[in-house]
């Protein structure tokens, strides 16, 4: 009886210092479920970015083509004059076509980088490049749309103080096409702003 009691194992309580030493080892390994959830969240943002980028490209191309092919000739003319309106008669509309063509080209070239963000949702480099370039393109698009909108307003309403007559009553087809191009440009501006916000959210989550 005494022998069995003498061979009984002695339990040693674990000190608080030893427990503190083991805690970081358990916390060092990140949970796999959280990593997968984070990756899925990033991929979802990247897919939405690609959809918005393609939509912005379509609206920018529509604005460029609509404005760049705008021309109307009235069916009546005199011996010395032929009444014709074309986008290149106004420097503002010429700037609009050039600016929106640049925006369209950029959006086409940015699509592969957006696809890279889908394949590698945790990569910071492509996302940072996109947010910088998107931020540069937004003011260019806004300038083209805003300046052309002022000309379209004058074409529809004129300005009695400056003796500028409204021409849309005669050149109705011309005014409809340039108005549609300006509306498409403003849609592009809104989509580009959403793209910048999405990229900022994705980078912040890193």
TrEMBL record:
Transmembrane segments: 50-70, 90-116, 128-155, 181-203
GO terms for cellular component: plasma membrane
Subcellular location, record wording: Cell membrane
Domain Casparian strip membrane protein: 43-191
Keywords: Cell membrane, Membrane, Transmembrane, Transmembrane helix
Keyword Flavoprotein set for record: no
Identification of the protein by name: CASP-like protein
Organism: Abeliophyllum distichum
């Amino acid at each position: 009886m005494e022998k069995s009691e003498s061979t009984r194992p002695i339990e040693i309580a674990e000190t608080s210092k030893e427990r503190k030493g083991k805690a970081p080892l358990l916390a060092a390994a990140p949970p796999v479920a959280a990593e997968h959830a984070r990756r899925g969240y990033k991929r979802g943002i990247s897919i939405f970015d690609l959809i918005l980028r393609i939509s912005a490209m379509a609206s920018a191309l529509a604005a460029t083509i609509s404005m760049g092919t705008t021309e109307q000739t009235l069916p009546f003319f005199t011996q010395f004059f032929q009444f014709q309106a074309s986008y290149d008669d106004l420097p503002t509309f010429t700037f609009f076509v050039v600016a929106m063509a640049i925006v369209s080209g950029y959006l086409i070239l940015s699509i592969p980088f957006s696809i890279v963000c889908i394949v590698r949702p945790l990569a910071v480099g492509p996302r940072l490049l996109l947010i910088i370039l998107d931020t540069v393109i937004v003011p260019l698009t806004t300038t083209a749309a805003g300046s052309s909108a002022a000309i379209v307003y004058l074409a529809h309403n004129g300005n009695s103080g400056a003796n500028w007559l409204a021409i849309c009553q005669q050149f109705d087809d011309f005014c409809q096409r340039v108005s549609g191009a300006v509306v498409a440009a403003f849609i592009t501006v809104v989509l580009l702003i959403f793209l910048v916000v999405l990229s900022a959210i994705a980078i912040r989550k890193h």
